[in-house]
Amino acid sequence: MRLSQVLFSQGFGSRRACAALIAGGAVQLGGRIADDPEEDVAAEGLVFSVQGRAWPYHARALVLMHKPAGYECSQKPRHHPSVMSLLPPPLRERGVQPIGRLDEDTTGLLLFTDDGALIHRLTSPRHHVPKVYEIETRHPLEDAQIERLLAGVVLDDDPLPVRAAAVQRRTSFTLSLTLTEGKYHQVKRMLAAVGNRVESLHRSAFGALALPPDLAPGEWRWLYPRQLDAATASPATPAAG
Ligand code: URA
Fold it and tell me: Is the pTM of this model over 0.90?
């Protein structure tokens, strides 16, 4: 692939802008300045740097973020900045979007990709990827509330009950809850339906992909598609860095 095409595919601006970046000496390959936009390079596995920042080539972008509170997942946020503002410009330029949404005040594991088919597959109601939420409640948890979350509760927009795939009480005011669907405000509405209230909400796992403990709020890292494939099949392990 031509070097200018590599940069273009990774979100570094128009073809002309990419060629200018290269010709201007801003791009390095293996520690040397690569200033020929026509240079033929093997894209797969390539790590190039632009203005000193290393950038691995990914045919499709797939990243995992530790979403902080105070950010909206919407492309057109209304009251808070968008989670997109936490990503570097090339990722935004190539059109990555969050896979599903977390509320503005929810923290934790959020995936992004520019692969529309993948977004469709993972957000489809037929694809039951388990997601684990860590919840702090306003009122002490009662056995009857846990039983109802597991048995199923009816929310106001659907006569069919929704149930938690698993519930683990951690303390009197904390629990972890596994859901295999993703309705609007589902955790908050389920807790409200059993007579409690969510005080804080954090997503700790998506499929078998756990939020890496060393990824601080607001930070993100690349994932490889095979990590996601594995994530929808086996027990949770932190994503490798
Ligand atoms: N359920 C909610 O209520 N909010 C979230 O952000 C995610 C799941």
Answer: yes
